[in-house]
Amino acid sequence: MGKLQAIQIIGTQRSGSNLLRLMLNQIDEISAPHPPHILQRFYPLLPHYGDLSNNQNFKILVDDVCRLVECNPVEWTGIFLSRDEIIQECRHRSLIEIFRVIYELKANADKARFWACKSMANIQFVNALEESGIRPFYIHLYRDGRDVACSFKKAIVGEKHVYHIAHQWRRNQELCIALNEELGTSRVLNVRYEDLITKPEDELQRIGIFLNIEIPAKVFDFYKSEESQKTAVAGKMWENVRKPIQKTNSNKYKKELTELEIAIFEKEAGATLKKLGYICDDLGLFCGRDFTKEELESFESENSLLKKQAQKLADPEGMKLRERQEQLLLEIKERKPLFVKRA
C-alpha cells in the first residue's frame, strides 16, 4: 500500500461528528467510513488474546477486528477484508497496526490519499497513534457540552445523567486541549460545532487549508449522498444527516435541561466550558461547595435507571443493526483467553 495520511476526529460524541465525517467523505481525496470503534472496543479485550507474537493469537485478533467492521451498522462498501493481506501489511503485531491497515485498505479501495476516523474516543489512544508512526492530523470538534448533554439524554448510547455526561465531556475536552498545546496548530485544528453549522463555508475552508486540499462545492450536498442515506437508516440518532445543515441547532439546553441540570453540568465542567469560549449561566445552586456523597450516589443510581429506560425506548431497527457487534464482543469476552506463547 502507498503512503496515506490519517485524519483523526477527536472530542466527545454527539458533537456533530457524523455531519463532519459525511462532509469530508464528499471530498474525493478523503475516505471517511462510519467507525466501528476498533480501538475503543478492542483495547480492553487485548488480555483475551495473550501474546500477539504467537501466530495463531494474532490471526484470531485480526479476524475478530475484521468481523467487527463487517458487522458495522453502516456498511463499509467497496472493500473485502482479506485477513492474510492485513497480517502481511502489519509492520508489527499490535491492535493499532490492524486499525491502520484496515483504514488504509478502505482508503485505497476508495482511491483516496487520506483516511479519516471519527471514533472520537480515540483521544484516549493518542500515545499509541503517535508511537505507531500514524501521526494523524487531529480535528478537535467541540460543541457546547450542555447541548451535548441534551443529545446524549435522547440517544441509545452513552451516559444519561448530566453529571456523568459532564464528567466525560470535561475529561475528553481537557485531553484535546492538552494535545493542542503539545502538538500545535500544524497537527491540531479546533473546529467549533456552532461555527460549523452557522458558517460552514468558512469552517470547511479552514479545514482545507489545514489539510492542504481543495474543498469541492459538493461537500455541502452531503445529505444527498449514499453514505448519508445509509447512516440515517441505521438509527434514529443519526436521522438528521439526510437533511441540510440545521443552522439553528444550538443552545437547545436552555429549553431542554432544567435549571438543576444546567447547574450540575456547570459545576462539573464549567471551567472547561469557559476555556472553549462558552458562557456559563452561573445559576449558583452549588456555589462554594462540592457535590455531597449522597448527591453523587443519587446521580449514579439515576444514571443507571435512565440507561435501562433508554434501551427499552430504543428504535428496534437501530438496536437490531447493533446486535451483531454486541454479540461478537460478548462472544470474545466469554471465550477462553489465549495465553499460548511463541515456541
Characteristic terms for this protein:
single chain; 343 residues; alpha/beta
Give a nutshell description of this structure.
With 343 residues, this protein is an alpha/beta fold.
Name the helicity range.
40-55%
* Quantity of strands, as a count: 5
**Strand order, sheet with most strands:** 2-3-1-4-5
Task: Write down the overall mean pLDDT.
Answer: 94
Q: Radius of gyration, rounded?
A: 21 Å
Order of helices and strands: EHEHHHHEHEHHEHHHHHHH
Into which percentage range does the β-strand content fall?
5-15%
The shape is globular
User: Total number of helical segments?
Assistant: 15
Multimeric status of the protein: single chain
Main β sheet profile: 5 strands, parallel
Distance between the termini: 31 Å
* SSE-based structural type: alpha/beta
Catalogue the unreliable spans.
none
Spell out the blueprint of helices and strands.
Elements: E1 5-11, H1 17-25, E2 30-31, H2 38-42, H3 55-70, H4 83-89, H5 95-109, E3 114-117, H6 126-131, E4 137-142, H7 145-154, H8 162-183, E5 188-192, H9 193-198, H10 200-211, H11 226-233, H12 253-256, H13 259-275, H14 293-313, H15 316-334
Parallel strand pairs: 1-3, 1-4, 2-3, 4-5
Structural features, described:
The chain has 343 residues and is α/β, with parallel strands linked by helices. 52% of the residues lie in helices and 7% in strands. The protein contains 15 helices and five strands. The protein has helices at residues 17-25, 38-42, 55-70, 83-89, 95-109, 126-131, 145-154, 162-183, 193-198, 200-211, 226-233, 253-256, 259-275, 293-313, 316-334; strands spanning 5-11, 30-31, 114-117, 137-142, 188-192. It has a five-stranded parallel beta sheet with strand order 2-3-1-4-5. The protein is globular. The relative contact order is 0.17.
